[in-house]
């Protein structure tokens, strides 16, 4: 099955369904734009290019994207972004800018937002997350669909997008910053992924397929956690201790993330400490604190000034009376 038919089979670019393509000018986004036009139809497709002004080639990239969209008959929106002081990680800031602008366009047009992430990107993501943070979530990678965001090329390798562009007579731009080994993702791209490919030529697609299967299984696990909690925001410590350890860790993580309003990667690793706590409180990290009283476990946001930095040991258990005296709770 050729690339076009494989993408069609995903159902992520249905005919006549409006879609905004994030267009950097690189091979993957150029391939995606061409495929979107052929599957969804030219009238349904538009593109967004963000010029961050961070590289000497930024102006040429913008001109290229404008010319490509004119050739394909696609409307192009240009976004000029200036990085403010204190914006933090450069790549995270740039990602937030383009996804935010793209989401606004997609919502205004009643359609989807498509990115050119490939199986190669998926393999890099999984390998990086495995190295940086242990746990099942590292293996889940990126999803093919996340709300209005779709990734139609997740089963396609970077080499295949290049071959598609070449066959279609489409040029693309090369971003020199992709070769900068100062970024961890680039180091994975340059070293780890080629090593996997040497082990097996379908390594990238196999990683992507594994992530897809694990996401399906993760949905089943979430339903099991729902059953264990039965709609409550707390659980008896005795009940928690009687659960299979893997399920108990998932329950702790669910409670912690509900309290903190974000990911709490370290919470599940504190299961044994929670079971041994007695009445008291324990910092779980990432803005969550476990509180046990009367045999019931609840998780609440960590009071201001008490969050432990990443990698630091959590608080020692404290009595509830002392916590009330100190924080007025």
From TrEMBL:
<feature type="region of interest" description="Disordered">
    <location>
        <begin position="297"/>
        <end position="329"/>
    </location>
</feature>
<dbReference type="InterPro" id="IPR012094">
    <property type="entry name" value="tRNA_Ile_lys_synt"/>
</dbReference>
<dbReference type="InterPro" id="IPR012795">
    <property type="entry name" value="tRNA_Ile_lys_synt_N"/>
</dbReference>
<feature type="domain" description="tRNA(Ile)-lysidine/2-thiocytidine synthase N-terminal">
    <location>
        <begin position="19"/>
        <end position="190"/>
    </location>
</feature>
<keyword id="KW-0963">Cytoplasm</keyword>
<keyword id="KW-0547">Nucleotide-binding</keyword>
<dbReference type="GO" id="GO:0006400">
    <property type="term" value="P:tRNA modification"/>
</dbReference>
<comment type="function">
    <text>Ligates lysine onto the cytidine present at position 34 of the AUA codon-specific tRNA(Ile) that contains the anticodon CAU, in an ATP-dependent manner. Cytidine is converted to lysidine, thus changing the amino acid specificity of the tRNA from methionine to isoleucine.</text>
</comment>
<dbReference type="GO" id="GO:0005524">
    <property type="term" value="F:ATP binding"/>
</dbReference>
<dbReference type="GO" id="GO:0032267">
    <property type="term" value="F:tRNA(Ile)-lysidine synthase activity"/>
</dbReference>
<comment type="similarity">
    <text>Belongs to the tRNA(Ile)-lysidine synthase family.</text>
</comment>
<keyword id="KW-0436">Ligase</keyword>
<protein>
    <recommendedName>
        <fullName>tRNA(Ile)-lysidine synthase</fullName>
        <ecNumber>6.3.4.19</ecNumber>
    </recommendedName>
</protein>
<keyword id="KW-0819">tRNA processing</keyword>
<dbReference type="GO" id="GO:0005737">
    <property type="term" value="C:cytoplasm"/>
</dbReference>
<dbReference type="Pfam" id="PF01171">
    <property type="entry name" value="ATP_bind_3"/>
</dbReference>
<dbReference type="InterPro" id="IPR014729">
    <property type="entry name" value="Rossmann-like_a/b/a_fold"/>
</dbReference>
<dbReference type="InterPro" id="IPR011063">
    <property type="entry name" value="TilS/TtcA_N"/>
</dbReference>
<keyword id="KW-0067">ATP-binding</keyword>
<feature type="binding site">
    <location>
        <begin position="24"/>
        <end position="29"/>
    </location>
    <ligand>
        <name>ATP</name>
    </ligand>
</feature>
